[in-house]
């Protein structure tokens, strides 16, 4: 405990780190405050009759409750994430975007500008659906046409403001701003979910509640292991004589992560899981449409989770293939005088890395799919839906990843100022550290 308080003291004794932490807290407070400001012209007491359950509850968890409150941040940062995913896929498939990606800082600025314009378009499209589906007519207190136009403008402005907050956190705060906004929305629902679960169990179910907390602890530890696990490939650098000095000859390693794609396969799969509901809406008068709608509107049904898990397996291999390029790694090694012991530089190195990547991606994708569908098993075991969402899925992986990244950044500040790190042995390893390596 003494070491913990000493670490906290060291953190706040570094002026730059202290200012960044306070900035982050301030920006997050602004974000949470905005999530409680209801759209003008909406009666909050009449919102209960809007669309709820299933997918809507899941979205509400990601957005920290602002979705159900019809707030000015009702769509949050999600349209920006959707736009970023689209642009990232385009950089793989479209030559124009590939060229921009290789142009350095100017290309990056151009991609950022395109992403922002696409965010506005996606927010406008999603905003229209949100107003039509989630806000009942009786909750609107003035002209429906004027309300639609005004609310669309406010929702677009709210999303762009959230995007701006995320960028400010990244620049002036600590951690990745966009990820922070998602995490704070998820965590804001966590205390209420625990209290609700505890009240539901009561004194008679106290033992079951304790078992649920223990199970949650082990699930979190398993998710940390999945996030941190990496296969190290040893590298040897050739020795070079420059003048009278000998350079190189050191040994290093390439850390290939077991889950190199992070949470992206779950996000991709979840985006596609909205398609069955759209199909059901087109065939709503038929028995097939009614069956599809009722089955895939429930994120805890076995049909939903079977398709969801298979999509995660496919997208894990797909996203790993577009983010980790063995040919680029082999070329960089050859260019810098590095080689894998026993493997020839060039094509054989690329094939060796590709084989290793394939072998570790399969168990990683299976484990990721299991973590993603764990909330369904928790519901089947008697855990309430709100609390079950923290037993796995996107929520848990995002929280673990963001917290590890933030702790790693804080630890790097401590070590740069010659303070002891946050752990007695080893280091806090976030995704950014492994990516940099």
Automatic annotation (TrEMBL):
UniProt main location, coarse: membrane
Residue stretches spanning the membrane: 21-39, 72-94, 114-133, 139-165, 177-194, 206-226, 260-283, 303-325, 360-381, 387-407
A biological process from GO: protein transport by the Sec complex
UniProt keywords, alphabetically: Cell membrane, Membrane, Protein transport, Translocation, Transmembrane, Transmembrane helix, Transport
KW Nucleotide-binding (keyword) present: no
Localization per Swiss-Prot or TrEMBL: Cell membrane; Membrane
GO cellular component, one term: plasma membrane
Annotated Pfam families: SecY
Role played: The central subunit of the protein translocation channel SecYEG. Consists of two halves formed by TMs 1-5 and 6-10. These two domains form a lateral gate at the front which open onto the bilayer between TMs 2 and 7, and are clamped together by SecE at the back. The channel is closed by both a pore ring composed of hydrophobic SecY resides and a short helix (helix 2A) on the extracellular side of the membrane which forms a plug. The plug probably moves laterally to allow the channel to open. The ring and the pore may move independently.
PANTHER family (alphabetical): SECY/SEC61-ALPHA FAMILY MEMBER
Quaternary structure note: Component of the Sec protein translocase complex. Heterotrimer consisting of SecY, SecE and SecG subunits. The heterotrimers can form oligomers, although 1 heterotrimer is thought to be able to translocate proteins. Interacts with the ribosome. Interacts with SecDF, and other proteins may be involved. Interacts with SecA.
Stated name of the protein: Protein translocase subunit SecY
Organism listed in the record: Fulvivirga lutea
GN (gene name): secY
């Amino acid at each position: 405990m003494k070491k913990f308080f000493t670490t906290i003291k060291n953190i706040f004794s570094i002026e730059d780190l202290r200012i960044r932490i306070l900035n982050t807290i301030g920006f997050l407070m602004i974000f949470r405050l905005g999530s409680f400001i209801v759209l003008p012209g909406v009666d909050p007491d009449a919102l209960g009759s809007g669309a709820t359950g299933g997918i809507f509850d899941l979205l509400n968890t990601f957005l920290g409750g602002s979705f159900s409150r019809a707030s000015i941040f009702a769509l949050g940062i999600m349209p920006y994430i959707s736009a970023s995913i689209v642009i990232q896929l385009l950089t793989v498939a479209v030559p124009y975007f590939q060229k921009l990606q290789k142009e350095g800082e100017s290309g990056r600025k151009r991609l950022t500008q395109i992403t922002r314009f696409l965010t506005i378009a996606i927010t406008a499209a999603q905003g229209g659906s949100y107003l039509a589906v989630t806000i009942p007519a009786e909750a609107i207190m003035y002209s429906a046409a004027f309300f639609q136009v005004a609310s669309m403008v406010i929702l677009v402005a709210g999303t762009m403001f959230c995007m701006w907050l995320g960028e400010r956190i990244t620049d002036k705060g600590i951690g990745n701003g966009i990820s922070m906004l998602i995490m704070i929305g998820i965590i804001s629902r966590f205390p209420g979910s625990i209290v609700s679960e505890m009240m539901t169990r009561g004194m008679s179910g106290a033992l079951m509640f304790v078992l649920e907390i223990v199970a949650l602890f082990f699930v979190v530890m398993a998710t940390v292991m999945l996030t941190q696990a990496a296969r190290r490939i040893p590298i040897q650098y050739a020795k070079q004589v420059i003048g009278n000095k000998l350079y190189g000859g050191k040994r290093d390693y390439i850390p290939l992560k077991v889950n190199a794609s992070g949470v992206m396969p779950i996000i991709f799969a979840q985006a596609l899981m909205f398609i069955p509901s759209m199909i059901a809406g087109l065939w709503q008068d038929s028995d097939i449409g009614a069956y599809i709608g009722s089955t895939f509107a429930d994120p805890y049904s076995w049909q939903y989770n079977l398709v969801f898990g298979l999509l995660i397996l496919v997208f894990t291999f797909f996203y790993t293939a577009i983010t980790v390029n063995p040919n680029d790694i082999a070329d960089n090694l050859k260019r810098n005088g590095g080689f894998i012991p026993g493997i020839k530089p060039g094509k054989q190195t690329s094939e060796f890395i590709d084989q290793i990547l394939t072998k570790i991606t399969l168990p990683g994708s299976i484990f990721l799919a299991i973590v993603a569908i764990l909330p369904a098993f928790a519901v089947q075991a008697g855990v309430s839906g709100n609390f079950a969402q923290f037993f796995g899925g996107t929520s848990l992986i995002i929280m673990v990843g963001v917290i590890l990244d933030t702790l790693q950044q804080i630890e790097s500040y401590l070590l740069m100022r010659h303070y002891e790190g946050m752990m007695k042995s080893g280091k806090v390893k976030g995704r950014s550290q492994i990516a940099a390596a």
